[in-house]
Amino acid sequence: MSEPTTSAGDFIADTVRADNASGLYSSRVQTRFPPEPNGYLHIGHAKAITADFGIAEQFGGTCNLRFDDTNPDTEDVEYVESIIDDIAWLGFRPDNVYYASDYFEALYAWAQTLIERGLAYVDDQDQETISAQRGGYGKPGVESPFRSRTPDENLDLFTRMRAGEFEDGAKVLRAKVDMQSDNMALRDPVMYRIRRGHHHRTHDAWVIYPTYDWAHGQSDALEGVTHSMCTLEFVAHRPLYDWYLNHLDLPYEKPQQLEFARLELTHTVTSKRKLRQLIEDGVVDGWDDPRMPTLQGLRRRGYPAAAIRAFCTHIGINKTNSRHSIEELESFVRQELNRVAQRRMAVVRPLKLVIDNWPTQDGHTIAQAREAGEDCVGETQWFDIVNNPENPDDGSRSVPFSGQVWIEREDFALDPPPKYFRLTLGREVRLRGAYLVTATDVVLDDSGEVVEVRATYDPASRGGNAPDGRKVKSTMHWVAASHALDAEVRLYDRLFSAEAPGETTGDPIDDLNPASMERVAAKVEPALADVEGGVRPGQVVQFERIGYFAADRVHPMVFHRTVGLKDEWASLVKRG
User: Fold this and answer.
1) DSSP letters for 175-238
2) Catalytic residue among 36, 153, 264, 452, which?
3) Distance, CA of 3 to CA of 552 (rounded, Å)
4) Among the options 262, 352, 432, 462, which is catalytic?
5) Dihedral (CA of 546, 548, 554, 557) sign
6) Is 36 a catalytic residue?
7) Is the separation of the CB atoms in 90 and 308 below 8 Å?
8) How confident is the model at residue 156 (pLDDT cuts 50, 70, 90)?
9) Which helix (H) or strand (E) covers residue 430, if one does?
10) Which sign, positive or negative, has the C-alpha torsion 279, 546, 327, 493?
11) How far from 365 is each of 354, 360, 370, 371, CA to CA, in Å?
C-alpha cells in the first residue's frame, strides 16, 4: 500500500510511542481485530481494521484476527469466511487467525480460579431479576442472595453447569466485584450463561458460553496483545477489563485497552440488527446490495479498497464521536477512480440521432436511403479514443461510429431553457472524438414526445474539430446504433433520506428512501462487452459525462453507479 495507514499524531500512536520509550512490553507492539461472526463487516469496521493493522504496521508489530465466537445462536461460518475475504480485499493480512473458542478451556480454568479466590459465584436468578437488582445510576444495587455461596459450592455448581445438568437460563456465573459501584459494568457482571446452541466450531461440546467482557480481555492476555483497541462505547467496560486481568496470573504483560471514536456516516445505518431487518423485509436483496454500507455492498458498487483506506486514514483516530458526511467518503472514491478507471461511452436514457447526409456503402446518404424506403445506419467508421487521460499507459481503443447514434435524451431540447448549450434545432455540437453535427428536424410520437432527432454532419470535422476553427459550446457522448449493446444500469440514491436516520422518528426504518434505486435500460459501446478483452466482472469504468460504474460480479451487462462525476464534498467544503 502506498498511502500511510495511520494518521500522524493520533493519540493511540502517541501512547505506543510513550510505551516503547518507557520499555513497557519491551517495545513489543501487538494488536488484534476481534469481530463477532454474526454478520457482514461494514464501513465502520473498516476504520477499526485500518487502525488495528495500521498501528501494528507503523511500529513493526503484529496484528491478529480473532473471531469473538461466544454466541452460537447468531454466528455462522458464512460470516467467518466473509470477514476473512473483506480484510484481504481491504489490503491487510493478519499475522494469525484465532478464535475465542480456541480459549474456551483456558477461560473455563481461569473462571475456576476466580471462584476459588472468592471472586465469582453461581447465581440462580433469572436475567430479569439480575438486571433489576443492578439498580441504575444514582440507584443502589441489590446483592444477590446467592452471592455468599462458598467457593466449594460455586465450583461444584459451575462444574455441573458445564456438564449440562441445568436448563438454559437456570444459572449464570457472575464476578463478585462491587454492587454499589457508580460504574454499572462493575455491578457483578455475568461471566457465563447456559446456552445450548450448536457452535460452528466446537459443535455441541459446550453448553456454557463466556460473555464478551469475560472472553475479551482474557483472550487478549493469552495471545500477548499489548494494545487492545475498542470503540468509545467500551470506555465504561475498561475498569472491568482491568479488574479481571488484575486478579489472574497472566502469561504476558497485562494488555491495555484504548478506545477511539467509531465511524458514523450521514444517510447511513450500521447496526447489524437494522441491516438484517432491511434484508428480511425485502428492502435490499442481501448483505452485498450496493446500497448497503457493508464492505461487500460497497465492493459490489465499485468502491476501491484504496479509497476506503485513504478515507479512514484521513479522518484519523480520535476520542470524539462525530458523523462524517458521506460525500466526504465519496470524494475519496472519486479521486481514486479518476486515477485508475478507464473511460467508456454509454447512453443511459437513449434518444436516436439520425445523420441524414451520412454516406451509405452504395454512395448514397441515409436520407436518400430512407426516401427509398430503406432504414440503414450507413457506413461504419472507427475512431481512436483515449482510455484514460490520467494514465497514458492505458492507451486507446477503437470506437465505431455510424450514421445513426444514440445520445442522452437530456442532451436535446426542442424548447431549450436559458444557458442550454447542448443540441437543439439549428445548433451545432461536437460528438466526442467524431464529428460536428447540427440538428435539423425531429420526429414526434402521438403524445408529442421527441423520439428521433434528424441532423447533418460536417465531413471536414473528423475528430471533432472544424478546419475553419469555428467553436462549439458543447461536446456530447454517443454510442453507434450499429454496434450498441444493451445493458442494465442501476442508479442509486441514498438508502436513508435523513442525514441522521432515526434521530427524529426513533427508528431509522422510518427514514428509508423509497426511490433509492432505479433500473434503466441503456445503450453502451462494444468495449463494455462481457467478453475477453472487455470489461471484467467487478471492474469500474467511467461512463463519460455521467459517472463511475461497476460491472456486476455475477450478472453480465449490469452496471452499478458507484459515484457521479461531481465532487459534492469539495463543493460543501468550499461553501463552508
Assistant:
1) E---TT-SSGGGSS-EEEEE----BTTTBTS-SEEE-HHHHHHHHHHHHT-SEEEEEGGGGGGH
2) 36
3) 28
4) 262
5) positive
6) yes
7) yes
8) very high
9) strand 428-431
10) negative
11) 11, 5, 9, 10
For the stretch 281-337, pLDDT in tens is 999 999 999 999 999 999 999 999 999 999 999 999 988 888 999 999 999 999 999
Grid cell 437456570 — which residue?
A: 170
Q: Within 10 Å of residue 318's Cβ, how many Cβ atoms?
A: 14
Answer whether 489's CB lies under 8 Å from 348's CB: yes
C-alpha cell at 22: 518507557
Lookup: cell for 304 = 476501491
Taking a C-beta distance cutoff of 8 angstroms, is the pair 316, 13 a contact?
no
Q: Rounded to an integer, what distance in angstroms lies between the CA atom of residue 111 and that of residue 211?
A: 12
> Buried b / exposed e across 65-95, counting CB within 10 Å, b at 16+?
bbbbbbbbeebeeebbebbeebbeebbbebe
Those residues whose C-beta lies under 8 Å from the C-beta of residue 531, and which sit 6 or more positions away, are none
SS (H, E, C) 124-155: CCCHHHHHHHCCECCECCCCCCCCCCCHHHHH
Amino acid at 260: F
Q: Around Cβ 214, how many Cβ atoms within 10 Å?
A: 25
Catalytic residue flag (residue 253): no
Q: What is the CA radius of gyration of the chain?
A: 31
Q: What is the SS3 assignment for 237? A: helix
Please check whether residue 127 is in contact with residue 167, taking contact to mean a CB–CB distance below 8 angstroms: no
Confidence at residue 7, expressed as pLDDT on a 0 to 100 scale: 46
* Interatomic CA distance for residues 231 and 211, integer angstroms: 18
**Residue 409: Cβ-neighbour burial (10 angstroms; 0-12, 13-18, 19+):** middle
Does the pLDDT value for residue 440 go beyond 70?
A: yes
Q: Is 272 a catalytic residue?
A: yes
- The one-letter amino acid code at 202 reads T
Q: Return the DSSP state at 411.
A: G
At residue 189, the pLDDT reads 98
- Distance from C-alpha of 148 to C-alpha of 93, rounded to nearest angstrom: 48
Burial 460-488 (b: 16+ CB within 10 A, else e): ebbebeeeeeeebeebbbbbbbbbbbebe
Task: Please pick, among 32, 174, 238, 272, the residue that the annotation labels catalytic.
Answer: 272
Confidence at 219, pLDDT banded by 50, 70, 90: very high
3 state SS of 368: helix
Element (H, E) at 216: helix 212-223
Question: For 387-438, how does the pLDDT look when each residue is reduced to its tens digit (9 = 90+)?
Answer: 999 999 999 999 999 999 999 999 999 999 999 999 999 999 999 999 999 9
C-beta of residue 33 within 8 angstroms of C-beta of residue 48: yes
Maximum Cα–Cα distance across the chain: 105
- C-alpha cell of residue 427: 445548433
Query: Using one digit for the tens of pLDDT, what is the confidence trace for 323-370?
Result: 999 999 999 999 999 999 999 999 999 999 999 999 998 889 999 999
In single-letter form, the type of residue at position 236 comes to A
* Phi, psi dihedral angles at 427 (to 5 degrees): -105, 145
Helix and strand totals (H; E) in the chain = 14, 27
β-pairing, 322-324 vs 540-543, is unpaired
Distance CA 535, CA 533 (A): 7
Q: Fill in the amino acid letter for 252.
A: Y
State the DSSP code for 490: E
pTM: 0.92
